[in-house]
Amino acid sequence: MVNQDAYRRELDYLAQYAEDDWLGFSVISGSVGTLLGRGASFQEQLALLLRIVGDLYDAGARAGDLTESTKDPFAPWPGDKTQVLARITADVEEHSRLPDSGDICWFTVP
Fold first, then answer.
1. Residue 12 CA to chain centroid, in angstroms?
2. Which of 9, 11, 25, 110 is deepest in the core (most CB within 10 A)?
3. Residue 65 near residue 110, CB atoms below 8 Å
4. Which CATH number fits domain 4-108: 2.60.40, 3.40.50, 3.30.310, 1.10.3510?
5. Distance of CA 15 to the CA centre of its chain
């Protein structure tokens, strides 16, 4: 069980990060590890990762890809929250581990 106060602090940190910069998965995965501690199963880690990503989406952050363009350096993924979470779930399950920054996507508040 995740401590809700600790969760809120981590989520606030991640949401602010996404406001200020490109938020990579290594930071989110680190938050998952901090909140769950050692010994959590992959499925527990994935569930918390998806909860965090869903809450970041609700806070205005979007998943997407970095581009070479200086005018539009971030290309948000199309689709709604459910579609984005399904895409992330499939990609994470394919790797059988929590992603690092540069894997799958980045997050920012466009």
1. 13
2. 25
3. no
4. 1.10.3510
5. 10
Length of the chain: 110
pTM tops 0.90, yes or no: yes
SS3 98: coil
Report pLDDT digits (tens) over 49-94. Answer: 999 999 999 999 999 999 999 999 999 999 999 999 999 999 999 9
Distance CA 28, CA 102 (A): 12
Q: Do 1 and 84 contact (CB within 8 A), yes or no? A: no
Residue at 96: amino acid letter: S
